[in-house]
Amino acid sequence: MLFTSYPLRNLTLKNRIVMSPMCMYACADESGRVNDWHRIHYPSRAVGQVGLIIVEATAVTAQGRISANDLGIWSDEHVAGLRELTALVHGQGTHIGIQIAHAGRKATVDGPIVAPSAIAFDEKSRTPEAMTLEQIEETIAAFGAAARRAKEAGFDVVEIHAAHGYLINEFLSPLTNKRDDAYGGDRARNFRFLSEVVRAVQAEWDGPLFVRISASDYHPEGMTPSDYVEYARLLKEQGVDLIDVSSGALVPVPPKVYPGYQVPFSEQLRREAGIATGAVGLITEAEQAEEILQSGRADLIFLGRALLRDPYWPRTAAKRLGVQLEPPKSYTRAW
Ligand code: FNR
């Protein structure tokens, strides 16, 4: 199944291998613009025959950057560079998406940082300002504008980053959302920010839409995979195509990690919410990826570090599974 195509609205991915979004912190200045590193790094994985590449967390506002070297999509000036990336990857027969993100209280840029509530991540981190309703509105609009720019830049997929303790995740979890207004206080109100971000994105974007979540906070008072089943159902009703199922990083509690440690969360959401999912996290072997798909535990396999180490991972996997993989045409005789 790993090398079977996957239909996604208006497009068909050539296989189930997805490059997971990974920040490169590679912008030399603070412009947020695409540079040579991105122009080499992403197309390399397209040559390696990945089915879908998701460009790293890309900031929807300058204030929402994880670091000053993040990629940006907060200005129309970012579109030209991003369009170069999509053209390069499309030229090698691979689809390309972008993860749009706001770092919330985990932003490390100069100036004030914002979050649903004024609670710092840990004692070493800065305390964010609790967002006003006006700031909330502006940030939702920034996600919408980012989706418009993603379309102008030629992306095939938009992924909303609602995981890893960044802004949207901070609204979703009761550990970080202590508001008592329309945007916090109970399950429905904690979900409202994400729901409105989805709507703002959909006003500009009619292509495939993914949402990455942290299915567990690994904390007794935090969110659990079962809580996320409910949210995944709501996201499905809103027209989200796939949940990319990660976990953790909301609060400083490191999870126990082992091969496929997040796959059970993907399996539960897929089964109980009836939505397509992507599995991610210490998936490194072809047989492991194949098992996840064959057992109906996910629809797509997201690979992070395995694809950093081996841009040709799909070729390596195809050999192991005995699948004939179409080589890039210039490599035909060497593949
Ligand atoms: C990441 N990860 C990540 N996740 C995300 O949603 N947006 C991001 O921008 C990043 N950035 C990032 C950078 C680097 C260098 C790494 C290694 C990881 C998490 C990543 O997408 C993936 O979920 C994890 O790495 C687990 O998968 P692997 O690496 O075990 O396959």
UniProtKB/TrEMBL annotation:
Record domain NADH:flavin oxidoreductase/NADH oxidase N-terminal: where: 2-321
Gene Ontology terms for molecular function: FMN binding; NADP binding; NADPH dehydrogenase activity
EC number: 1.6.99.1
Superkingdom of the source species: Bacteria
UniProt xrefs under CDD domains: OYE_YqiM_FMN
UniProt enzyme class: oxidoreductase
Keywords, sorted A to Z: Flavoprotein, FMN, NADP, Oxidoreductase
Cofactor(s) in the UniProt record: FMN
SUPFAM superfamilies according to UniProt: FMN-linked oxidoreductases
Protein name: NADPH dehydrogenase NamA
Top-level taxonomy: Bacteria, Bacillati, Bacillota, Bacilli, Bacillales
